[in-house]
Amino acid sequence: MRRDTIPVFLVAAALGLPGMAASETGPLSFSLTYLDRTKIEDEGEGLTEPSGLALSQARDALWTVSDDTKKVFKLGLDGELAKDESFKIGEKGLEGIALDPTDGLLLVVNEESNEILTISIASEEVVSRHALSEMAGFDEIAQHFSGGGANKGLEGITFNQDTGTVFVLKEGEPGLLVEISKDLGEIVSARVLDATNGFIDDDVDGPEIDFSGIHYDDTRSLFWIVSDKARRLFLYDWDQNRVMQSAALGFVKDGEFQEIEKAEGVAVDPQSKRLYVVSDEEARLYVFDIR
Questions:
Q1: Per-domain residue ranges for the chain?
Q2: What per-residue string of b and e applies to 13-37 under the rule 16 or more CB within 10 Å gives b?
Q3: How high is the mean pLDDT in each 10-residue block of the chain (291 residues)?
Q4: Is the pTM of this model over 0.85?
Q5: Topology of the domain covering 43-243+263-269
């Protein structure tokens, strides 16, 4: 991975630095130190619009999808594409991706159909699909899917290892976080994500904030959520239904703060204290140290 000659960018939201916000009601805080970025685009392989990130079981690689390509991609932590371990699955419109911690399966959401696809890594095939609209309990949230515009469907997915349930993230109109049973047959609960629970930004009006990637952090029992329009990272507590802290996503280059364009995936390795963000528009992988 190429290391840019860019000054380290330290995000300390709790200190109230410009463009960053901290929770006013809780002591929890985090800091991000920008480490590196690398171009991961590979037009020949179809990796042009990476969307979603999932850390491998061994924590030595990342999985991603490209919404315009019928393929699942495996990357090294340095961003290098593992061509022999990437594979076609015959599905387009893929967005978020998550790794089942026990069964050797990848779960991917299709934004257009609002489905969850279960993919076997061993067989490299889609083994099941689960439409949100066919799950028990969908009637309780159906109104949130009836009036949304184009490209406002499911955008992210993650496992909550504490509860064994799956969470899917709706992009907007409104933003929604939905908890689903482990067997993917029932909607357990859901929360609208908006200004009332702390999803705010200085430059983007509340209703315009979208949600493009999610990762459940089992060491903190909190969700990391990214917004591409707000260019912001949120740390969200499901139990308290509020944002604990947020920070602008970017780095310093030539003395100026540069924001990440269209961040559409996030993954965290609590052991190495690394946070990975993928940009759809830039086709880059960003790496931060997180404390």
A1: 43-243+263-269
A2: bbeeeebbbbbeeeeebbbbbbbbb
A3: 33 34 51 94 94 93 92 96 94 91 91 94 95 97 77 90 94 95 97 96 86 95 95 96 94 87 94 95 94 87
A4: yes
A5: Methylamine Dehydrogenase; Chain H (2.130.10)
